[in-house]
């Protein structure tokens, strides 16, 4: 007998297709909801979407079926900003912060980003893969089917390449799909504290040209990684950020920027000017810069886990971004210092409360718009024929439970490139007081 080549997902409460491309301004939150919708998957791709059970049964008589048991089916989440690869942790620093220690005191006692840089420099690729794998798995189990991952904890050519190797190696294990970003300009390395321009020159004249050749040799079939810069006081100023990003653009790299997390240096406007894929953080962004972004195709990526992680009160001005017709996405910013958050569902809950988004807007910002922020929106981020079959089956019948509930994983099954991964035991019908002794 021929194996079934089609998989039919049926008995959904709500099928969220998110069809029609990235969603701008007040248009954010168009879920493309089909009550009782069905999806047919062929191999790794979506073949058909609809709601007519009889016609689907006629068209695909041999299809194997997956019963969604009256629950929501939606696209896999896309996390467009993470620093998933690092060694060590900064739990002690978290405690010091809670005890009222200043940033300088933490730095002097060996904390801060440079402690992660030291630990990451000392780790092998195998160490980094094994330390990162658990985080990747937990993010996947919470419904993130594709994540962007940055380097930036090495700050030397060799150690930055080591992080890229880690990303490629972990990505090749599957099923979690990783999109790499080179963030050599994440912080000023200790060796260059007194001469930051020399480090900028090193990135422009040595690291980026080396990276082009390295990439052609080690990942010839994949698009070039993004190049990102941390444009912030204490990191790279606007002129240095411009220099790095312009050089990267000339070499053909797609661009990203960290901007306006603590200060507005003009990084968001620079991203729009250079045609970057995204500008990220955007807490202190001015209205003129929001307008500049909105006129471009640069996606504004908000990271509400970061102010939450730092216990700060200022979040991205999402309503202004939408009012001015900008493209808004959300991400976890998973990192050991400010936002060790592996659940993009928690980010949705935060965005609803702290940025005033509705669940529908937050869902669009973590699927189709998040895919646009990593230039993958023709392949992922929505449920449409021809796209990659990356879907979630939730354990709720109402999509608004995303955002409404928090701290609970609402994903029960993940379909990644057509393969089904159960990620959670269903709640038992009777007592769950069993255990192993
Ligand atoms: Zn970041």
What would you note in describing this structure?
The chain is an alpha/beta fold and 437 residues long. It has 2 domains: 6-75 and 381-422, Urease, subunit C, domain 1 (Roll); 77-373, TIM Barrel. Helices cover 36% and strands 21% of the residues. It is built from 16 helices and 16 strands. The chain has helices spanning 53-59, 91-98, 103-108, 113-122, 125-141, 157-173, 196-218, 238-251, 267-274, 287-294, 305-310, 318-323, 344-354, 359-365, 368-373, 401-404, and strands spanning 6-16, 33-35, 38-42, 45-50, 64-75, 77-79, 144-150, 177-185, 226-231, 255-259, 278-281, 299-302, 328-330, 391-394, 411-416, 419-422. Strands 1, 2, 3, 4, 5, 14, 15 and 16 form an 8-stranded mixed sheet that branches. Strands 6-7-8-9-10-11-12-13 form an 8-stranded parallel sheet. Strand 9, helix 8 and strand 10 form a beta-alpha-beta unit. Helix 7 (196-218) packs parallel to helix 8 (238-251). The radius of gyration is 22 Å and the shape is globular. Zinc ion is lined by residues 81, 83, 258, 333.
């Amino acid at each position: 007998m021929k194996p079934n080549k089609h998989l039919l997902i049926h008995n959904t409460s709500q099928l969220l297709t998110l069809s029609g491309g990235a969603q701008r301004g007040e248009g954010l939150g168009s879920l493309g909801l089909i009550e009782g919708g069905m999806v047919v998957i062929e191999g790794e791709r979506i073949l058909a979407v609809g709601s007519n059970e009889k016609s689907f049964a006629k068209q695909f008589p041999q299809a194997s079926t997956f019963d969604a048991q009256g629950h929501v089916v939606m696209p896999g989440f896309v996390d467009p900003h993470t620093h998933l690869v690092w060694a060590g942790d900064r739990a002690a620093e978290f405690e010091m912060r809670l005890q009222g220690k200043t940033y300088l005191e933490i730095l002097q006692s060996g904390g801060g980003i440079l402690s992660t840089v030291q630990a990451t420099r000392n780790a092998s690729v195998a160490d980094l893969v094994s330390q990162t794998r658990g985080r990747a798995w937990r993010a996947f189990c919470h419904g993130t089917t594709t994540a962007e991952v940055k380097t930036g904890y090495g700050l030397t050519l060799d150690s930055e390449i080591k992080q890229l190797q880690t990303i490629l190696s972990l990505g090749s294990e599957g099923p979690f799909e990783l999109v790499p970003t080179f963030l050599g300009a994440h912080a000023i390395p200790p060796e260059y504290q007194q001469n930051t321009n020399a480090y900028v020159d090193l990135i422009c004249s040595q690291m980026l040209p080396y990276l082009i050749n390295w990439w052609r040799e080690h990942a010839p079939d994949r698009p070039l990684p993004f190049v990102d810069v941390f444009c912030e006081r204490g990191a790279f100023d606007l002129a240095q950020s411009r220099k790095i990003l312009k050089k990267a653009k000339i070499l053909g790299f797609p661009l990203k920027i960290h901007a306006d997390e603590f200060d507005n240096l003009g990084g968001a406007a620079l991203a729009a000017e250079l045609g970057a894929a995204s500008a990220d953080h955007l807490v202190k962004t001015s209205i003129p810069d929001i307008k500049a972004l909105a006129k471009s195709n640069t996606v504004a990526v908000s990271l509400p886990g970061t102010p939450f992680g730092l216990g700060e009160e200022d979040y991205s001005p999402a309503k202004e971004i939408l009012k001015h017709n900008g493209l808004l996405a959300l991400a976890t910013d998973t990192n050991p210092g400010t936002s060790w958050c592996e659940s993009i569902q928690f980010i949705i809950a935060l965005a609803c409360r702290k940025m005033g988004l509705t669940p529908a807007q937050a869902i669009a910002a973590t699927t189709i718009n998040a895919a646009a922020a990593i230039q993958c929106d023709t392949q992922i981020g929505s449920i449409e024929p021809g796209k990659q079959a990356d879907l979630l089956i939730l354990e709720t019948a109402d999509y608004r439970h995303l955002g409404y509930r928090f701290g609970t994983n609402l994903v029960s099954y993940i379909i990644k490139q057509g393969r089904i991964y159960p990620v959670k035991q269903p709640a038992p019908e009777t007592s769950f007081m069993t255990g192993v002794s």
